[in-house]
């Protein structure tokens, strides 16, 4: 097993489970749909709230996807094989997260134009929203994967992961929605995008190592 | 400087015998100082010229809020110590400290809400500091929940240490982001009525209360750690000796 073959196989395993990919996407869409139905469907409310709604839904969909990233590997023993494979465990985790990111976030980006029409997002904010999603979601994955590793040995761990990890997602949501709001009032937003990128890079540096510590403790 | 004392802290037995004489005096001193601060602050300190008597809740609110933050700092430090030096006492400390921190942040939120009603006219504002204490409360509850749901003790210790360290790294980011949220939002602005330069008879009781609460918590944490040690080491011979000699 090499790093590249590991990445390709991880990606293919995720991609060929079409139903799971669709489920995450459908979950995302239905959470978005809850807001106009539940709160207010007028453009006056939705246009300024659109970015926040999309981000809240994305956070939940991503966390649901990340939560089970190690579950199957843990149950069938392949997580143990990763630990003893002789390859660097943090790097393997990084590749695993990257594969998951591609499979979850790319379909999400494809559906965004449709949703932003439905939420009356002004066109000035559209590309910024796309950019925040591209730059900000890696940190969601990297932080979430720590939670997934922490709870991998617990049978019903989804709720616990939500409780553990959602507080860490607040800054990402705040920076992203502020960036979109800034364009709507004509303010510069590059600083907020830079903050999002900084958070993604920080979590990229820390998370694989932290996750590796927990994975090693979980499998022995 | 010798680091032997630091490494000795890794041994439950040594830690137990070292901390035993400290818990009670710290606790008693803390109670006394807290009592002095509270009685002085609540009864004798002059009323605020703007807020009247309602400001007196500061003598509860401020010490508790300070503790809520310091406890997390201590948790993160203990988590780091455990991940780097595998010190056995660090997870015991985290386990003893996390519920206290959760209670402190909850009391800070509740007392802040009670203070907010007469001064701001509302129980809750989505203000930077309130929001960050709320997040802090969730972080504490997460640690407690994680420790309770993991059966394997070794894994539970490591997990609590990891999440404490990750939390400590993220806390400044969370704090900074909610400040940004507040300052960009020009919603209904509630500002704390500018306090006059506090005279000594107002801040001295506060100082007593803060120091008292710190000592109180230190004493309680030592006790909790000692009972945790006794429970986890109940098979070892020194615990048997300890219990038969001194009783509980």
Task: Tell me what the structure shows.
The complex is a heterodimer of chains A (220) and B (248). Chain A is mainly α and 220 residues long. Chain A has one domain (3-219). Helices cover 85% and strands 0% of the residues of chain A. Chain A has 9 helices and no strands. In chain A, helix 3 (43-67) packs antiparallel against helix 8, helix 6 packs antiparallel against helix 7 and helix 6 (89-118) packs across helix 9 (190-219). Chain B has 248 residues and is mainly alpha-helical. Chain B has one domain (24-43, 55-189, 205-231). Chain B contains 8 helices and no strands. Chain B has helices at residues 4-8, 12-44, 58-85, 89-120, 128-149, 153-184, 200-232, 237-246. In chain B, helix 3 (58-85) runs parallel beside helix 7 (200-232), helix 4 (89-120) runs antiparallel to helix 5 and helix 4 packs antiparallel against helix 7 (200-232). The two termini of chain B are 36 Å apart. Residues 185-196 of chain B have low confidence and may be disordered. The interface between A and B is medium-sized, with 27 and 31 residues.
- How many E strands of chain A? 0
Number of discrete domains of chain B: 1
SS class of chain A:
mainly alpha
Which range best describes the helical content of chain A: under 10%, 10-25%, 25-40%, 40-55%, 55-70% or over 70%?
A: over 70%
- Shape descriptor of chain B: globular
Query: What is the mean predicted local confidence, pLDDT of chain A?
Result: 92
Element order, helices and strands of chain A?
A: HHHHHHHHH
* Uncertain runs of chain B: 185-196
Head-to-tail CA distance between termini of chain B: 36 Å
Parts with pLDDT < 50 across at least 5 consecutive residues of chain A = none
Structural class, from secondary structure content of chain B? mainly alpha
Can you count the beta strands of chain B? 0
Helical percent range of chain B? over 70%
Largest sheet of chain A: none
Number of domains of chain A: 1
Strand proportion of chain A: under 5%
* Elements of chain B, N to C (H/E): HHHHHHHH
Distance between the termini of chain A: 22 Å
Count of helical stretches of chain A: 9
Radius of gyration of chain A: 18 Å
